[in-house]
Amino acid sequence: MSENSLLDVQIVPATAGDYDGVMSISGGIYNGADYLPCRYHEWLRDPQRRMFVAKSEGKVVGFDSYLLVDGGVTAVVQGLRVAPWMRGRGIAGVIQQFCFDALHYEHPEVSKVRLTRGEDPPAAMMSKYRLMHSKAIISVVIPNDQLEATIKLLKQRVESEDGTCPVHSMSPEEVLSWFENSTSDELFPKGILVQDWLPLSTHRSNLQLLQQRGVLWCYSNTSKPHTHKSLHASQKPTSLSLPHNSTPTSPFIPGGFLSLSTPPISVPLGDGMHRYDIDLFGTDPVAAKSHILHQVTEALRVLPTGGSVICFLSAEETLRAELTRFCQGIAPFFVVREQLVLEMDI
């Protein structure tokens, strides 16, 4: 697209009235497992987020947003998309630059921009950003009529392992104390925690953000698995509050395993189809399998009647082969193989 033709493109703050226009350019994104239809209006209400649309001849042709994190010193860029008929013409670069200009004007204290991408990002992007970390992505789809059989299969595979790794559901006080008192480098390389493709630091301010997302936190002390009790089937996920003084009620120790998830969200792939992301932190394969079983079981408890689920697993690359075998027999759902966390100073 020429510079003159780009003059016809206007970039303005997104509104509720732009929803249909943004959805009209989003068909097929993530092979139908797009999170934005479910989260668009939620994002609009977030005071820490700004959303923008690019319009040409009155029609939406692009979308992007940023979210302030890490106590306001970092912005995460999310949701970039361009209308299929406008791709390759420079719209993505224009709307991203508009985002950065707005960010610099409104929040000059922001010093870093962070984002997540799938494999093989453009060379131009890699010349600007540094790679913070990468993780393997394994994704499967579980139709409603196979939910019970899938849980049974995964349970059999977990029980066939040598040794056990009970999964502990963390209370709000335990989450806070764990972040304040533990050494997290083993679980979060370079201090980055990615939850549902949102890359955060372990800064305390981000815990409130995760509370709002309804995150279920689960932990295993992999070196002393017998010290924990498994989560009872009737126990519900807890929300995170931030008391000033708290102490953990369970003996979390270095070298453990952590998993995070948010409730399944509806996606446009088909009626009753939901997306569920499980982020795994640690390198112990026995613990990883136990956490997947636990998290999937909990997700199905809140899945609407008749619902099916696409499950995205994010794990260290060293676990890819083991977890791929663990998921054998469950239909794969390919979108990307890798999750990259990129960061740029501004």
From TrEMBL:
Residues 9-137 form the N-acetyltransferase domain. Gene3D superfamilies: 3.40.630.30. InterPro entries: Acyl_CoA_acyltransferase, GNAT_dom, Hisat_C. Keywords: Acyltransferase, Transferase. GO terms for molecular function: acyltransferase activity, transferring groups other than amino-acyl groups. Pfam families: Acetyltransf_1, Hisat_C. PANTHER family: LOC100145250 PROTEIN, N-ACETYLTRANSFERASE 16,-LIKE. This is LOC100127817 protein. It comes from Xenopus tropicalis (Western clawed frog).
